[in-house]
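Hey all, sorry for the wall of text incoming. These are the two entities for the joint prediction.
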Amino acid sequence: MKFFGNLFVVISFIVFPAFQVGAGEMILKEPPKSINKYYPPESQPSKWIQQMHKMSTHFGGVFINLKEEDFDNVDKHADKLVEEYKKTSEMVPEWEEYFDIKAAENFANAAKTHDITKVGKASGRLGKTCGKCHAEQQVSVWAKFHWPNFHKIKVTDPISEKETAYDDYMGSISSSFKTVIVNFGEGQYDRAAKALKMFKSRFMELKSTCSKCHINQDAKRFYVGPEIDSALNELNKELSSEKPNTRKFWKNIDLIGKKGCKHCHLVHRTNSLIKEIWQQSVKK
Amino acid sequence: MKNFSRVLDLIIGVGLIGISGIAFVYFLINERFEWIPEVALELVRDQEILKRPPAKKCSECHKNIYEDWKESRHSVAWTSETFIEASENRSKEKCLPCHIPQSIQGEKPEPRTDLRDQGIYCVPCHFIDNKMQGPYDLLAPPHPTFRNPIYVRSNFCGSCHQKTFKEWKATEVEDTCQDCHMPREKSRLTQKKGLNLLHKKRWVGDHRFLHGKITKEDVILETRWETKFFNISLKNQTIPHFVPTADNGDPRLYMYIKFFNGTEEVDNAKEIIAPQQETALPYNKKINYRYRLFDPVSKAVVELKYQPAWSKEKTEVFSKTVTR
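and here's what came out:
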């Protein structure tokens, strides 16, 4: 019996998050404005995620204590879960329909029987209410609140020394990079060398940009680290020579493109694009 | 005449007793305050001070220190426009521990929840473990002050200025952060009338936390021409940490190089020397820069300008013309 109890606890923890991914397709709508007050900058700390953790902890607390046969704490967690569930249901009025108070109360009543089969059955109906909301809203909430907003970042362009919007700055870097490549392709090595100087300066400025969010050096060194620095120096060396080596030139361009640009874009760009689309739809 | 003499004796006697009394109290307060029974001290204690008061409360006695602190960057750690902008309206959690510290004790502090507008003020630095602490053991009637040697050591500042502290440590220079940024002078710790005269003068650190001016004596420029290249080296000769330095701020030195052929500017270059770009100048080490000359060049003008983290204004460090 104890074996089945343990098995059930393990299965519930696996199945519960799995409720969240049921949808075959997803529409990423910007979360309703009423949730803004539970996240920075309107709220410090992030009250919404704290609320999610509270419910998750009490839900888990019921199963953990059932397993440990600590029935007083089973009852306490069951009551607290209902209390927090009700509280959460009132926080974002637009999402009220995701909540089923009756399902939460049924789960608490089942928990108080201390019968794991009854608890398991009641948890399914409650879990589905969480899962539906997560499936439809979780990615949007994470995209909006848990990722920094690149569109708010300002970068001082090292060439003009003017503050530039992040998106525009990315355009400037891209343009400098292309100027190097195009001029090299045309055999205009002096022009390519001058453009490289500009590109290097702009690319290295990104180290300061990374530091606006990342507290340690590792993140920026991953994208704009010694490998990139060395590639830029190699490029400079080639362009300063009488007859630049084409193979070495493209090898270093490729390295900068992959390790610098692509790695950062893989991590950050999807989120940035989602936010950009939301911003554009607001402007329309 | 006899009466006059008696009155004079009385005045002199009372005067001598008064002076002796004041001298004794002065001696007692400054040298032997442990002789004063705790019961007597309790009568003059100000309990409000032991409840983490705002800086204004401390200024009732420590007026000079308060006024120095008001001029410092520490006092605007939470309210400066640069900080509000850089922290996205104070929402970046990484900024909070050092901009609104609860208690500084040689390690990264926790952020506090009260009196945030005060930034880094008296309490986080001097009220540790529910006791007022400083570089001296003092009677200070409103509150006892306990000596803690950490106040004259660099690791205290290193609680927040961790990167700068590591840079300084690597130089093995003996001068501490406080030696340069809190130069001491002999003065009284309190300016409250009456109390000030009872306190002897002590070495008091400058609470403006001076931000030294970078000059051409600090950063040494050397240049060398080659047929197709112009070489520059910069050396931070006097400042025992990187220049500029910052954990999270973005102070910069801008080096502008303009190349001329006669009076016509034919090319230019620029270097950004900044801690966040890992290009800041280490102590006592030459950093070299090399520029290819594309056109005929007869002279170069090298300018170095400094822009602190909290300002967009640049000030000149030096400007030098180098002829070929």
